What does this fold into?
Amino acid sequence: MRFRMLFGFCVFTIGILFGSCISMHDRVMTGQELNEFEILGKVNTEFSSFQPLHIHISSSIKDTAHKKLLVEAKRQFAGKVDINLIDIKNIKMQGIDDSPLNTVWKVFFPLIIVSNWQKVTATGDVVIKSADRLKRDVNATTRGLDGAVFRIAERLKNGLPADATISILSINSKQEDPDYIIEELEIFLEEMGAPFTIVDRRMLDQIRKEQNLQLSGDVNDESAVEIGKMLGASIVIVGTAGTTSNQEKRLTIRALDVKTARVILTARENY
It folds into this structure.
């Protein structure tokens, strides 16, 4: 009888020790999400997790894995996409015993039953909303400024040469925030996968300081072209936003060829 009890205890204990390693999935993408998100790549991270009585606190482990993977994803993809739009899906977590007791378990065998530390390796897919999903989201506010900026971004993406280097110089507006419009336009173009290169705004800020340029108001075509040359851009973009004489709110964008100073594309959207 005692032998059976001892044998049962040993089997139970071994089951705990070998069956308590973390192995779980989280945020598995559904079929609908596969159509709504684009996978940019994979990231991985490691962290330690304490298991009291070898019991996994699943919610805590999953939350830690997601947060750490998201931090790593933002670090890797900074400057490539808008990191505020990315998320982590298809998270896999696998743990191994990382307890200091592992080396002395024969001496302190009863203690290892109480708890352990595990090193958890987590991997996940970095995802971002696809252009189609982004378009559907913006269509919800189609009469707003964001909708107008999005539709103009589509015009620029489809209407400008793929080998172009563009710089969005200025938006003249007393009613709207020009920097917001420029920033959103750049974000939409990047998320749509626009084939051309967009000049980093920091270069424009540097030239603005060096040349003592004022770009907060209306910039004439001649000045825009000259600034474009300084930036190494082949196309510069300027625009206006505000109320028309018909009391309609309108965003207008013009793309200028730096070599010829000709307007090669004009886009207007009411909002």
Notes: The longest strand covers residues 37-52. The radius of gyration is 28 Å.
